[in-house]
Amino acid sequence: MAALVKICGLKTADALAAALAGGTDFVGFVFYPPSPRNVTPDEARPLADMARARAGIVALMVDPSDALIEAVVIAIAPDLLQLHGSETVERVAEVRQRFGVPVIKAIKVETVRDAERALDYAGVADRILFDAKAPKGMTGALPGGNGLTFDWRALEPVQGKLEFMLSGGLTVETVATAARLTKAWAVDVSSGVESKPGVKDLGLIAAFLAAAKAA
Questions:
Q1: Domain CATH code at residue 99
Q2: Which of 62, 69, 89, 125 is the most exposed place for a label (fewest CB within 10 A)?
Q3: Enzyme catalytic residues
């Protein structure tokens, strides 16, 4: 069975339409001002309405306050909250209980030990997403969406122990191999379908979806 696909960091109706036309399973909206993919709750509302019932709606936030989560939940009624910062197990549980929305917890990976941290969140987060850890000293590094990949062999100890989403520098050329080797439940792309940071390429969106679903 092919991995499910999430196109993340969507900001425009044209890009969202391309993702939906290509059969994306999830669409992601980023609520993190330092990111070139950032949208406000008001900007995301019509996009979420366009996607509703056609793809799962994911709201990505980084160590968010309750006030931000509440604003996003009210504006777009997401199907999933993606916590992409340094949220603890306790914080993930608190968010899930307080807002009644399933949670994806992102884990940044460089080593096997990083990947094994995800097991702490098993039974607390509804899904785990593995992303590449930015190297120390990287100029302009973001919590995600840096276009970096990692050694997928680091995930071997957690394979079969939890269902996870795979992110981190995936491209049209690499997504099929990544999905096959990691046995990921879903693959997630943002920078890999952009012409420049924050600007989605409609052709790359279509090609990525085709490659992922053919894997």
A1: 3.20.20.70
A2: 89
A3: 8, 131
